[in-house]
Amino acid sequence: MTNSPIIAENLVRHFGDVQAVKGINLEIKAGEVFGFLGPNGAGKSTAVRMLTTLLRPTSGTARVAGYDVVKDADRVRRSIGVALQDAAIDPLMTGAELLALQAVLYGIPSAMMKKRSDELLERVGLTAAASRRVSTYSGGMRRRLDLALSLIHQPTVLFLDEPTTGLDPMSRLTLWEEVRRLNKEGTTVMLTTQYLEEADQLADRIAIIDHGKIVREGRPVDLKAGVGAPTLIIKTHADQEERAKAVLETFGDLRPGAEGALGVGLRGGAAQVTEVVRKLDESGVHVQHLEINEPSLDDVFAEATGYRLEGSDNAPPAGDNGVEEPDTKKKSRRGRK
Fold this sequence. Notes:
Number of helices: 11
Mean pLDDT: 86
Low-confidence stretches: 318-337
Helix content: 25-40%
Structural class: alpha/beta
Largest sheet: 6 strands, mixed
Strand content: 15-25%
Order of helices and strands: EEEHEEHEHHHEHEHEEHEHEEHEH
Strand order of the largest sheet: 6-7-8-3-9-10
Number of strands: 14
């Protein structure tokens, strides 16, 4: 395997007339946690399904773990671990039974199977629940079991597709710690997420995808530094928004805010806040709420796309520019070798 276990060149996927992924290029180095950040419908999961051989690219090429995802799909599947967002886990089987089945599918000798399964159950905190049917598991427990299943054959490349969606804060933190531990042990991780904090906390580098295209890529700290000025966010009465915009744009570039909020990148830094408030007051604008934030990944996303990822209802509809597989049931990688 090369020093870049994931390489994609001009990767494209269409569903009829729908363009879900539009010629993305990626290179993920060995030992990285790479965050793939974007809203629902941006093309994240479609890209991951191509990289994990679950979807055939319309055009372009990709190599994972040193193998072509089309020509050497079987070798790719044997080399990677995949935990999908909606993985199908048999609810009538126990956690231990599912791990044993997964071990058989990957050809792991029976002498090693029990030891490996016990180790994984312990590290994801499911030893006490190993003999229980999965139907009795909470959402967080199922996600941790799915992670254990993806690790049974000790892959060097791991794909996690929105692994913490719907989890409570404690379950999310537990999974984050496991991802960090796996990465320290040498596992390369590609993490798709729509949670800014998750990408900021875990990823060495991130790529932002919007409507099927990568619009920013780099280290989180560099991307945030590139935004520059801090963002001042205000809320005012709807009938005063135009006057407020006129005042704010004299202090810097207007930035997208969450629904009902206005934002501006303050050229002069936080020291300008007092002057902004004074000018708003002189213009008859009543400020209902004010906050100032240092550059964040949400600012990076807003600058790149024109809308905010979190706390916003004003994202443009994906339409035919960036939807996930339309009317297609997502299938698990269970049973594939």
